[in-house]
Amino acid sequence: MKLGFFESLTMVGALAVAIPMVYAGTNIYLAGNTIGLFFVALGVVMVLAERFITTPFDIPSIVAKKTVGRFMRDPEETEPDAADGK
């Protein structure tokens, strides 16, 4: 599934927080402290939650997509006209 503009922005925001967390967790774990694995797992969960969990901020975009989808069809899904001769 392709991400839209706003979904991409929120994913970038989640990654901006998760990547340093995973990096720090990896360094902490490699230094010998197992709490670093917690930070790695937390960073992964943040990205997965952003991708797969619907939040209240996602609802308006979902409603807009469904509304527009009722009135406008995807050009690739429409059948060619019989007048085209194809």
TrEMBL record:
TM ranges: 34-53
Top-rank lineage group of the source organism: Archaea
Keyword terms: Membrane, Transmembrane, Transmembrane helix
InterPro entries: DUF7533 (IPR055955)
Name this protein carries in UniProt: Putative membrane protein
Pfam family, one: DUF7533
